[in-house]
């Protein structure tokens, strides 16, 4: 089985260093460095990446990457055979975060992109990772698409086995978002780790 990872928003594949997935093939999100992909719409990007996947693939997704992994598994059931999802959510705005918080964050992002990205990454974890070269326009559009995207219908259609991992100290997507996804995916398991946050959960597989 061919293993692929998909990182989260404003990060890059360095998040997988020191994890069980360090040697997998790492997919880079549009606007987050040198990516093969260009769409900033969640479904269109899932189709774009899905066309690239070979048969018998396993997807490891973190945060926004987990959303893409679920959509790809729904759209390409003949290709995706397993999902490993870290810090996922059914919907970021309204479930993981109040809508007013999301709207305020997006406004701040457009006014002061670099500072707002740094604030977001500090919220994810105290662990400090290198900041990738970000395309402000593309990265902002991708976050807007993710923030209001409802994963429910894609999750209900899944038959592929899914392992879900979330940290109890995750203040970004949160335990509630992961629990709701677990309840929608029939063949899923959920593991909650008390001491882990949005980023450090990646080391608990």
UniProtKB/TrEMBL annotation:
Pfam families on file: Abhydrolase_6
Domain (AB hydrolase-1): residue spans on this chain: 6-200
Top-rank taxon: Bacteria
InterPro entries registered for this protein in UniProt: AB_hydrolase_1, AB_hydrolase_fold, AB_hydrolase_sf
Coiled coil regions, renumbered to chain: none
PANTHER family assigned: MONOACYLGLYCEROL LIPASE (PTHR43798)
Protein name: Pimeloyl-[acyl-carrier protein] methyl ester esterase
Protein species of origin: Phorcysia thermohydrogeniphila
Organism classification: Bacteria, Pseudomonadati, Aquificota, Aquificia, Desulfurobacteriales
């Amino acid at each position: 089985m061919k293993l692929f990872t998909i990182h989260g928003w404003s990060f890059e594949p360095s998040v997988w260093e020191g994890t069980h997935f360090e040697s997998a093939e790492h997919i880079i999100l549009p606007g987050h460095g040198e990516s093969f992909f260009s769409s900033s719409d969640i479904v269109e990007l899932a189709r774009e990446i899905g066309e690239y996947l070979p048969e018998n693939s396993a997807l490891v997704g973190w945060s926004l990457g987990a959303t893409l992994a679920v959509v790809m598994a729904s759209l390409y059931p003949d290709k995706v055979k397993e999902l490993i999802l870290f810090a996922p959510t059914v919907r970021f705005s309204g479930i993981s975060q109040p809508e007013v918080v999301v709207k305020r964050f997006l406004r701040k992002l457009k006014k002061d992109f670099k500072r707002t990205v740094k604030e977001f990454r500090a919220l994810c974890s105290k662990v400090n990772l290198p900041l990738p070269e970000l395309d402000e326009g593309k990265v902002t559009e991708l976050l807007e698409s993710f923030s209001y995207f409802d994963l429910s219908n894609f999750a209900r259609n899944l038959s592929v086995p899914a392992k879900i991992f979330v940290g109890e100290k995750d203040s970004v997507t949160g335990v509630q978002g992961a629990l709701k996804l677990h309840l929608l995916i029939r063949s899923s398991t959920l593991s909650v780790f008390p001491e882990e946050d949005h980023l450090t959960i990646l080391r608990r597989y």
